[in-house]
Fold:
Amino acid sequence: MQPPYLLFLGDVQDQLAAKTARGIVDWRPDWVVGQLRLEGCKADIGVPDRSIDEARGEGAGTLVLGVVNSGGTMPEHWAGTIVAAIEAGMDVMSGLHMRLSDVPAIKAAADRHGAELLDVRHPTRTFRTGTGKKRTGRRILAVGTDCSCGKKYTALAMEAALRARGLKADFRATGQTGIMIATRGVAVDAVVADFISGAVEWLTPDNDPDHYDCVEGQGSLFHPAFAGVSLGLLHGAQPDFLILCHEPTRTHMRGLPHQPLPDLETCLETNLQLARLTNPDVRPLGLSINTSNLSKDEAHAYLKAVSDEMNLPAVDHFLTGMDALVDALP
Amino acid sequence: MQPPYLLFLGDVQDQLAAKTARGIVDWRPDWVVGQLRLEGCKADIGVPDRSIDEARGEGAGTLVLGVVNSGGTMPEHWAGTIVAAIEAGMDVMSGLHMRLSDVPAIKAAADRHGAELLDVRHPTRTFRTGTGKKRTGRRILAVGTDCSCGKKYTALAMEAALRARGLKADFRATGQTGIMIATRGVAVDAVVADFISGAVEWLTPDNDPDHYDCVEGQGSLFHPAFAGVSLGLLHGAQPDFLILCHEPTRTHMRGLPHQPLPDLETCLETNLQLARLTNPDVRPLGLSINTSNLSKDEAHAYLKAVSDEMNLPAVDHFLTGMDALVDALP
Structure:
């Protein structure tokens, strides 16, 4: 998994579908030589358009499928571009549910050219079942009211903020985009159910007493599809500190118009209650709010109101930075 | 998956390791022609010992690996017996984590003789992610303070008790032994984590308004290894009624000496609290206690005490039958 990357967006129809590429650009801009878009692509992640040859000339070693789409499969007509990248000497990395090698033309090209096909969503190792035994070091977990509300960005921003203070910190990736950013991690939603917490225990092992793991959460305890993943991750991470992530304009759980969002207090209390199984000393650190859909004035007003209501610091790392959360650490 | 079965116990060293075979004998005695044990086997499930040829003569079509072992793998020296069964014309069914076809000699024999190799723990289909949308019909879910405390037996006993009253009921299997008993189901602990609740939604679909699904629970919300599975199953089953299962002599969570058991009230309340996400009307039906480690007098005293304390009917189906729980249905 060697940067730099050429980010392939295919011909996806909106910006959200390119969120994997967007995450890499936001957090590892130095690793990106450009974007490769097919005709009709409606996403633009604000980096130069590059052909395969141009990207190779600038040192790109890996073509990254920087997209998510429901179902996790790849349109057939993307295969030609991927084969061309392989023929130009690149490896290929994908976060889709389907494996790159399931496309015969891609597999054949990779075999022919000795290219690596990295399906970061698929665990390459086996795990033990969890034990809940206390580990050394400190762990901060980003949990959420819903999917896609800022947990990954929050964990990455905490890593950066802690390191900026000279503290020891590592982002721990639990999803495909996070893995591409960290070059390691486990896509916990793709692990066999019996091993969710065990995989997270492996991901966040014993560490120095003053070291912080900044663990990316997944889903929400209040999402009917994914709460099992969220709970296994919560138990496996055995967090010392929780950061609750929220997107305040959302009107229902992602993908489920019939399912209301939990209120912040219920969501935080439930996470704390269940986290105590593997760490009785868990405590809330603060709130991380994705205010990107609010005006600046609205955002500041919301942060103040929610901070007063919950009696916890509230940040949006794009707007305020993370200092208030770092300051809240004991 | 066609009965009758010859139950293969290998040379396991205790009765507990034969609990899959025991479950089949307890619930589907008519499907069992006998047990096949290797030299040194210390388990005996109380059915006649039969050779492969004898079993074939009595109509057995399937050799069932009726054992569980930690790790879910098969000792190499069992392969010869399995190959002999295939050569005698039998199919083979296993609930182990490893696949039968991963043993080259078994795969070759099956290919040669056209035998079916059934790994019931491995889903043979894909699932959608859960939605939490309300389905028709009634659902009873057996939940537990721990693993292996009677959830499967409770769900099977409820199916039998409801049918004995002329009511429509189906046991819904969520683990390997249950699947062998029901000849269908999903081993939810072997599903990819993203699809736990979706798999259970598929398993317990819309049904007649007066039909009961009796759903086998898995693990416990208070087990650090498996709570994610338990929560996804709870959300996917969207139960109308919970039966809390408990083994009163257990001193710690199964396999984890450092992990205490939850008290019954906390366990029931937490299950109800989290179940409300997909069924706000969920209610407790009663307690199902595995009193097999108590004397009869102790057992009756315990059932009365716990029933008074929780203000719910308490049964042990071997001791009291399930009538008190059926009577508690509205």
